[in-house]
Design brief:
Layout: H1 2-32, E1 37-43, E2 49-55, H2 79-87, H3 94-100, E3 104-106, H4 113-116, E4 132-134, H5 136-140, H6 144-147, H7 153-175, H8 178-194
Parallel strand pairs: 3-4
Antiparallel strand pairs: 1-2
Helix pairs in contact: 1-3
């Protein structure tokens, strides 16, 4: 049932937002003549590596110029990229990941392999479900980038923020239903409309 729901919603969103996504793609390509999409390597269900699609918000080859997580004031982020990140419009292409079956609408956010390598045995249990576009932790930490400022931000992410997010995700998985997923989706949409 979950997969059918994911597929129908993702198909509908892709169809309805295609004109908007085409405009965003054109602007991204025009700003520096680079590709519109960025395929981030992340860990998916059962530890399988997947390519999570996003509109590119950074300069080309940004992954070679800095860390996998973006902190406040990262110079690699483009002007239009800042707008896309703030509004979360950069994540619209992930509905294609949902259609493909790599992701779900709601689920733990897919993480960089380097950070998954640091998961505890308990945290690795989250890899038994499909990662999602949104989740309780992504709502709670929607301004995560602003919390990652100053020296030692990556260590703070690994020591404080990531364990907190994973704990929230694990708690949600224990009580998750289709109705609670719809609630998370509505909250996410509501926050997006407020931007």
């Amino acid at each position: 049932m979950q997969r059918v729901f994911d597929f129908v919603v993702a198909l509908t969103v892709n169809a309805c937002l295609l004109p908007l996504m085409a405009i965003i793609a054109a602007i991204v390509m025009l700003q520096d003549r680079g590709p519109a999409l960025y395929a981030a390597l992340r860990v998916g269900k059962d530890g399988r590596l997947i390519r999570v699609l996003k509109f590119r918000t950074m300069v080309q080859d940004a992954e070679k110029l800095g860390p996998a997580i973006t902190a406040t004031g990262d110079p690699r982020v483009t002007r239009f990229g800042k707008f896309l990140r703030k509004t979360k419009l950069d994540e619209l292409p992930q509905f294609m990941n949902v259609l493909k079956g790599d992701m779900s609408l709601v689920g733990p956010r897919p993480e960089d392999p380097r950070y998954v390598a640091a998961y505890t045995v308990e945290q690795r249990k989250l890899l038994s479900v499909r990662p999602g576009i949104t989740s309780p932790a992504s709502l709670e930490y929607r301004d995560e980038e602003s919390q990652l400022a100053g020296d030692g931000w990556e260590e703070r992410y690994l020591r404080e923020i990531l364990p907190s997010k994973l704990s929230m995700e694990a708690a949600y998985q224990q009580k998750r239903t289709l109705l609670t997923d719809i609630g998370i989706l509505l909250k996410t949409a509501g926050l997006g409309l407020k931007k």
